[in-house]
Amino acid sequence: MDKILQVKKLKVSFRTVNGTVKAVRDISFDLERGETLAIVGESGSGKSVTSKAILGILAGNAIIEGGEILYDGKDLLKVGEDDMHKIRGDKISMIFQDPLSSLDPIVKIGKQITEAMLLKNKANRRAGRKEFNTMLARLKVFMDEAVGKENPETIARIKELVETFDKFNISALKLENSYNIAHTRAEELYADIEDLLFRTEHKQKADIRAKLIVFSKKLAAVRDPFLTAKYEDRLSAIALRLKEESDRFKEKWSAVQSVRRLITGEEVKREVPETTVALLSELKDLLREICEQTKPNFFRIGFYQYKNPGSAPEQMEVEELNEKALAYLNENFMNEFLALVIRGVQRSYENSLALKREVPEKIGALREYFLAGSPEKKETRRRCAEFSALVERSIDRLSVNKDSIAYTFSNSLKNAVERYFFYCKNNPKEEARYERQTKRRDALIAKGKNVDWKVVPKVVMDLGEQIRNIVAILDRLEEKYAADVAQADAFDGRARSVELIDFFKDKASQVVYRVTKRMAREKAIKLMDEVGIPEPRIRYNQYPFEFSGGMRQRIVIAIALAANPDILICDEPTTALDVTIQAQILELINKLKEERNLSVIFITHDLGVVANMADKIAVMYAGKIVEYGTADDIFYDPRHPYTWALLSSMPDLDTNEKLDAIPGTPPNMIYPPVGDAFAERNKYALQIDFEQQPPMFEVSPTHYAATWLLHPDAPKVPIPKTITDRIKRMKKLGGAEHGKQ
Amino acid sequence: MENNNEVLLRVEHLCQYFKMGRKELKAVDDVNFEIRKGEVFGLVGESGCGKTTTGRSIIKLYDITSGNIYFKGQRICAGTRSYRDAIAAAAKEKKEAIRAAKAERKADPSKAEECRKKIDDAKAAFTIVLLENKKNIEDARRDHTKSDKEYSDKLLAELKTKYEALFEEAKEDPEQTKKLKKEYRKERSIAKKTKLITKIQMIFQDPIASLNPRMTVREIVSEGLVINGIRDKKYIDEKVYEILEMVGLVREHAGRYPHEFSGGQRQRIGIARSVIMHPDMIIADEPISALDVSIQAQVINLLNELRDKLGLTILFIAHDLSVVKYFSDRIGVMYFGKMVELAPSDELFAHPLHPYTKSLLSAIPLPDPHYEKKRTRITYNPIAEHDYSVDKPSMREVAPGHFVYCNDAEELKYREELK
What we know:
The structure holds 2 protein chains of 2 kinds.
Chain A (H helix, E strand, L loop, with lengths): L2 E14 L2 E14 L3 E5 L6 H9 L6 E10 L2 E2 L5 H7 L4 E4 L13 H39 L4 H50 L6 H14 L3 H4 L3 H33 L9 H18 L6 H10 L10 H54 L5 H18 L9 H43 L16 H24 L6 H20 L4 H14 L5 H4 L9 H14 L4 E5 L7 H18 L2 E6 L2 H4 L5 E6 L2 E7 H6 L4 H9 L47 E4 L2 E3 L15 H14 L7
Parallel strand pairs in A: 3-8, 3-9, 6-7, 7-8
Antiparallel strand pairs in A: 1-2, 1-4, 4-5, 9-10, 10-12, 11-12
Helix pairs in contact in A: 3-4, 3-10, 3-14, 3-15, 3-17, 4-5, 4-8, 4-9, 4-14, 5-7, 7-8, 9-10, 10-11, 10-13, 10-14, 11-12, 12-13, 15-17, 17-18
Chain B lengths: L6 E14 L2 E14 L3 E5 L6 H8 L7 E6 L2 E7 H27 L4 H58 L4 H20 L6 E4 L13 H11 L5 H14 L16 H13 L5 E5 L7 H18 L2 E5 L3 H7 L2 E6 L2 E7 H6 L4 H8 L6 H6 L7 H4 L8 E6 L2 E5 L1 H11 L1
Parallel strand pairs in B: 3-8, 3-9, 6-7, 7-8
Antiparallel strand pairs in B: 1-2, 1-4, 4-5, 9-10, 10-12, 11-12
Helix pairs in contact in B: 2-3, 3-4, 5-6, 5-7, 6-7, 7-8
């Protein structure tokens, strides 16, 4: 599986009146595609801060002290607000804890769901076009390079081919666009008719005649050579009948109306005649049929049309058409082009691989230089710039899957180095200031004055730590490149090329994908249906206060899913809900995850909730991850005393003895403890826990825990009896011989 | 054994309706249960099913619509709706009877005498019902408003007899008499202000919202005493310290304000406030829902300790079923204002009968991944599950101590299930 999100050594603190609260202290984890990571911990352990850092929505007084969050070739902690805007909500989205405060009370539900869809669409289309162009230009360069200067004919041919590719793509886009518009209109009309039928069925007010006129106008717009060519006759027939119906309606209407009014003085109740209903349902079925056709492959047809302008599409089945167009495309263009693309991709890959082979020794040299100590500023900058340039060149730019570590490397390195020099300069200054102020204060006190100010504590960074940070960045790159070089044999040029062409197609279709208000509405209603809201058509126009707690949370989930994100962050989505609703919401999130291959970060303080959701669990305490492992590891083989305490402090259905409450409260994070943060509340604490922070000990390749109890020299402490009992019981209940055997 | 226990609180046909525009919201509809002395009675159900309303009705935060609540054998709450409904029904019956009789007379004038008799009978029957129910209404109103007064009168009488004997003893000693008199006066003033309802205390859900941010802990905890007429500062302070230490806080905390405490400590203050009145019963309305898991255990352990130490009876309202199971002796399950199942907690979890209970139990998440992956949730759809069109349901005892809301057919089915 590929890592979709990587959090590395994240440190976040908050500036407050009383001092700096160290909320998150050096945590790292990876999130893989289609996986659920649960972060469990008490309030104040830094779970929410982590998730907010990922989305870039930390409060104003937050300081990000260090670390990286890598996503899609970017470091989310360092990208600007403009770039973040494209990711937030669109690629990574969030379900908040309190559905009451995360919905706008005076805006209707429908609008809140569609809002983001409409806003994001425009930006997406622009970005798609840009990416398409840059990638194509890059590809051309590499293809030229692969062919070599000695073949001017081939280079000319490449130029021609690339131009053709670009142009026929545009022509295909035009066709697709027109198809899409017609398709959208058909869908809109379908939805309108469904709406009207729904209203008449429920005896709500509706002006049938006006609607019929609108329908005939809209129906006239549903025309596209690829979409409706086969249905031309039926469509025109129905359009005619529609017009007749509306005319008839008009006459009958006015006649009946005037007579009735004369006799009874009452307004006539507007009843919809059955013939109209029948006609509308017929039209609806026809539209459904039209909409449900297979979409022709415009990429292929576009090429045909580009080569033979003015030729009309033939009347044939879509599959047949696709086949023919494919044959034509392959024969005249694709085979040749693909061969060249493969050469280009191969070339790019080889280039980058050669450079990657070169990198390790340079890294070695650079590391030596840093480890030697006291680097000189100018020299360091020069060396780093040189090296960064090398790494930049070594990135395989034609690879569709971006290599996050390499992409962010130069930025991270520069940052770390600048930081080092900043502290080089700043540390003596800070110390001098501290000295000065203490002296002055002491002098005043010695004079017997009443001093009403305190000396601001000095912030002196450990320079060695900064150097270690830099070296860590280098190490990571080295490791990654070593892995890449080792996997060089597995490279498949053809697969990569196909991937690349798919990427082009994808970007091109992104350009033509247009979302109208009406479409957004339909999509929103579908989404509401998906998250299990009954009668979404009525609910669409309601306000948040008309929903119950569980329903509101569903709306929040629908909003989060509207943009079709890669990563979903759930920040205690069920804490405010009761058991049955909680079970429903969890099932819903699980279902959506499977359907859309989402990656989920699930934050909670209740371990019971995550048992069926999580693939991996990170237990957090006082801003650190104390235990990290798969769900089975954490529940069946917990190793950290805090995990034990969490597990044994909640009763399950068979608990009868006194609960093992965790005594005391979490530590004040303004003055984080020197040793293990949990030591004070831990009855298994060793002396060393109060003096030194435990490192992450490896229990198994997937399971890590930060406790000195795992050190080989530590005394053997058995898992508390309540937990072993429970595990035994659970295994019996689970009815299987699972576990670690 | 348990059956011999004294019943502390009895709720009979409790109905609590709220006006919502033209319609009425039946928040609690015909709920019956008893709580015995010293037991913990759990009340579960999803949000909006009327658990909290039941608790609040018992402590008279609402005027109940109909039904009776007895505490220590004395009726403390009573609603009048059922009596008024009875009167209305009787009036309707009378009207119909008269109309029928008149119609008969019109059809056949020869039966005039007979018909008049019928009319008179109907009128007389109605009068009986009217008088009876009017008296009931009067009683209910009196009990509802005067129960506290009666209780304090009773206390006063007790005091009087007690002190009369003492006075008799200390007749010769004027010093002693004087002292006794002073004591008597003090206790009398307290007894006068004592209300029966203060023997029931409540712990609220949200420890942040339920503590006044402008009062110190001392003021919050001692407020009940002050209202009861105790003015002795020294006595109050000592009492506050004692209670604070009992709930796991320290003396120094008395001078602080609520915002200086963590969530768990705040809930401890809430508990201290309710315990200081020496109540017989505590209504704990989701006291742990707003707390972290590790703190929840602390609060539950504290409640358990207090229960042993003070002999408290607790009505425990919560939606976390594993906690309720752990903490309560008997559990009542509520669904949309109705009590659907009531049983000892082990029995309820071992043999859930009502489909809603089953669905509720199937939704409990357990800290066990393998079990969780296999767990299937049962959904409850009242329309599909029950057919109450002909056979009306009621609360029936299916097994000893195990009550289910069902009709005849279902009762048979449930009995089969238990075998």
